[in-house]
Amino acid sequence: MKYEGQICRGPMERSSFMLPVAVGCAYNRCIFCTLFKHLSYRELPMKQIEEELARVREAGGNPKTVFLGDGNAFGLSADRLLEILDKIHQYFPGCESIHMDATVTDVGRKTDRELCRLYEEGVRHLYLGIESGLDDVLLFMKKDHTLEQAYREISRMKEAGLIYDAHIMTGVAGKGRGIENAEHTAAFFNRTRPRRVINFSMFLHESAPLFREIQNGTFCPADEKENLMEERRLLEMIETDALTYDGFHDFIEFRVRGELPKDKEKMLRKLDERIEAETEGKVAIVS
């Protein structure tokens, strides 16, 4: 597979065949993100996409699930996506579902009929970068949506049968606002009811535009203890059924995952142990 840039997809897609259909992110203005800043966004030619499908089929591949890359494949026009879906089904007759990342605005650009057509042709899971349940945080981080827009577009996609999954980031609200952000994000999830939530605790890199906000004092990052406490409050307050959760903390190599509500108490205990270790200054990794 020819792939430019960093491969980025949710852990729930590790068994999916990843088919690149674009390079970079069509939006690419979130100030915390460094994944696509070095890339110039472009759609890949259909010839290249079809060559990759043919290569995999000739190697004996017939995946049940396909994940379209790159940053927000759902930003492609409905007509372009339908053309790609048709090719996927031609080459992989066993394919049952197609998943991809999306922004709230990507959904808003599709008509109700287009959303239904995409569902009819096999699109199932859409991963939306929700990031926070606070409007002022979304504005500061230059997300492409408000909460009101997110509520509207998630309702539209679910009405068409599409499955809504969410990306979030503990720490995105900054120092001292972790619990506030957790409570508002949980309220958002209790209303919108995602099937999956992936939490990448904010990883700050000097190449991110957000780093300049830290240098000039307009953003103060939370430490990992506060991020852990935020995550604990989030999981404590989520009241949806059948939600798969996976949370990462790169700085301390900590991960908590499970099914809600079934695994909630086990996940909270694991977080309590890690928070206690952080409080006492222990460095052992809780895995």
Features:
287 residues, alpha/beta, Transcription Regulator spoIIAA, 10 strands
User: What is the helix tally?
Assistant: 10
Structural class, by secondary structure, is alpha/beta
Which ranges are low-confidence, i.e. pLDDT below 50, for 5 or more consecutive residues?
none
Global geometry: globular
Radius of gyration: 19 Å
Proportion of residues in β-strands: 15-25%
- Helical fraction: 25-40%
Quaternary structure type: single chain
Count all strands and give the number.
Answer: 10
Distance between the ends: 32 Å
Which strands sit side by side, in order, in the main sheet? 1-4-5-6-7-8-9-10
Mean pLDDT: 94
**Total number of domains:** 2
What order do the SSEs take from the amino end to the carboxyl end, as H and E?
EEEHEHEHHEHHEHEHHEEH
Query: Largest beta sheet, briefly?
Result: 8 strands, mixed
Could you explain how this protein is built, in words?
It comes from Sellimonas caecigallum. The protein is an alpha/beta fold and 287 residues long. It folds into 2 domains: 15-123, Transcription Regulator spoIIAA (2-Layer Sandwich); 169-279, no CATH class. 39% of the residues lie in helices and 18% in strands. The protein has an 8-stranded mixed beta sheet with strand order 1-4-5-6-7-8-9-10. It has a two-stranded antiparallel sheet with strand order 2-3. β7, α7 and β8 (196-200) form a beta-alpha-beta unit. The two termini are 32 Å apart. The mean pLDDT is 94.
